[in-house]
Amino acid sequence: MAQKQKLDCHQLEPLPLHLFIQSLGNGLSWNLSDSSAALSTLADLGVDCQMLANMPLSYAPMAGDERLRSAIASMYRDISAEEVIVFCGAQEAIFATQLAILQSGDEVVVIGPGYPTLTRTVLSMKIQFKTLEVQSDPWRFDIRQLPALLSPRTRLMVVNSPHNPTGAVLAKDDAKALCSQAEFLGIPLLSDEVGTFSHDPAAPEPMRMCEHSQQAMSLGVLSKSFGLPGIRIGWLVVRNQQWREKLMQAKGYLSICPSRLDQMVATELFSRSGPLLERNNKIRFENIASALALCKKYPLQVECSRPAAGLTGVVKLLMEDPFEHARKVAQQEQMLAFPASLFGVKGPWLRVGFGSSQFTEILKRWERCLQ
Q1: Per-residue pLDDT for 5 more than 50?
Q2: What is the mean pLDDT of the segment spanning 239-244?
Q3: What's the CA gap between 243 and 294, in Å, rounded?
Q4: What single DSSP character describes residue 206?
Q5: What is d(CA 79, CA 73) in angstroms, rounded to the nearest whole number?
Q6: What is the full DSSP assignment across 6-62?
Q7: Nearest-angstrom CA–CA distance, 355 and 335
Q8: pLDDT for position 126
Q9: Which residues contact 23 (CB under 8 A, 6 or more apart)?
Q10: Which strands sit side by side in the sheet containing 312-317, from one edge to the other?
Q11: Residue 8 pLDDT greater than 60, yes or no
C-alpha cells in the first residue's frame, strides 16, 4: 500500500519591505531609494538584436554559459570560469546557499545586515540568525564583537560590503580577518558584493572576498552597479569545490539553468562593461554631490554623509518619523522611499539611492516634501 509522506512546510512570512511597498498602493512613478545604477536599453548596450532573434530558445548549461562564466571571472583576480556559477539574480544565489549549507539547528552570523533575506530563510528548519550591526558616525563595520557570536553550531558567515543601505565598506584588515575566521572554522563566508563596482572614480575598489580565501563566496548581480535589473543574471564565485557541488545540487531544485536570452545579453555586456561602469560611477558621483548640497539647505530637517561605496546611503531625518515621511513622499510626489530599518538599520534613517539618471527630478520632488 502506498505511503503518504507528510511534508514539513515552513510558514512563509511576508518580507516587511514588500509589505511596506504594497501598503503605499500603485502609481508610484519615482524612486528616491532605488538601489540600481542608471538604466540602459539594448540599444545603449549595442546588443545585436538580430543575433537574439536567430538564437534557438533551448535550455542552457546548468552552471551557466561558458563564455559568460569566463567574462564574469575576468572581473576578478585569479578566478577561473569553473569557479563561477550563474543564477537567475542574486536572490536565487542567496537561497541556494542556505539550501546547500544549512541544516536544522544551525546558526548563521550576519555582519552588517542588508537585504532582508540575508537574515531569514524560508527553509522548513530551525535556523538561528545572529547579527552584528554596522556602526554610525561614520558608518563602519566593527568586527571586534564577532567572536562572541560564533559557536560550535555556526555553519555560515555572511557579510554585506558595500553595505546596503549605509554604503559602509569593510576595511581590508577586517575583511582578511573574516576570511581567516572562516578558514579556521572550516565554514563558508557568503560575501554580498552586489555594489562592489560602484565607487568614486579615484577611490580604490572594495575588496572582493573570493580573491583572498578558498572559503569565501562572492555574490554579484547585473541589477546594481551595471544598472540592468531587467536582465535576471546573478552569480557566485566559489573557489571551494565542495561548496560548488552542493550549490549545483541545490540549483537543481530551483531554476535549474539561467535564461539563454539573458545570458547572451549579459555576455555582450561584459565585452564593453568598462565604459558602462565608468558612466554609472560618474552619475553616482554627481548625484551624491547634489544630495549633499540639498541636505545642507535643510539642516533642521536632515543630516547626511557621503557613502564610501555602493549605490545607496542613508539620510537622518531630524523632524519626522521615517515611515511617516515615506508615506508623505508617496502621497505628495508619487515617489517611493524606504525607511532604513527595513534593511536592519535602526533609527531615524531613510535610504537614498544615487544611481538614477533622473536624480535631478527626484531631488526636486523630495525637496518639496522637506520644505
Answers
A1: no
A2: 96
A3: 47
A4: P
A5: 5
A6: PP-PPPPPPPHHHHHHHHT-S---EETT--S-----HHHHT--HHHHHTS------T
A7: 16
A8: 84
A9: none
A10: 302-304, 312-317, 349-353, 338-339
A11: no
Which residues are bridge partners to 237 per DSSP? 84, 218
End-to-end Cα, the chain, rounded Å = 73
pLDDT in tens, 144-181: 999 999 999 999 999 999 999 999 999 999 999 999 99
Question: Which carries the bigger pLDDT value, residue 160 or residue 50?
Answer: 160
- 260-281 confidence digits (pLDDT tens): 999 999 999 998 899 999 999 9
The half-sphere exposure of 60 on its side-chain side, counting CA atoms within 13 A, is 23
- Give the C-alpha separation, 240 to 7, whole Å: 32
Closest CA to 276 of 47, 122, 9, 93: 47
Pull the grid cell for residue 369: 516634501
Cβ contacts of 160 within 8 Å, gap of 6 or more: 110, 111, 112, 113, 114, 115, 118, 191, 192
> In terms of Cα–Cα distance, which of 139, 145, 213, 191 is closest to 169?
139
Q: Which domains does the chain have, with CATH numbers?
A: 16-41+274-370 (3.90.1150.10), 47-273 (3.40.640.10)
Q: With contact defined as beta carbons under 8 Å apart, do 346 and 330 qualify?
A: no
Rounded to 5 degrees, φ, ψ at 121 are -145, 155
| pLDDT score for 10 | 54
pTM exceeds cut of 0.85: yes
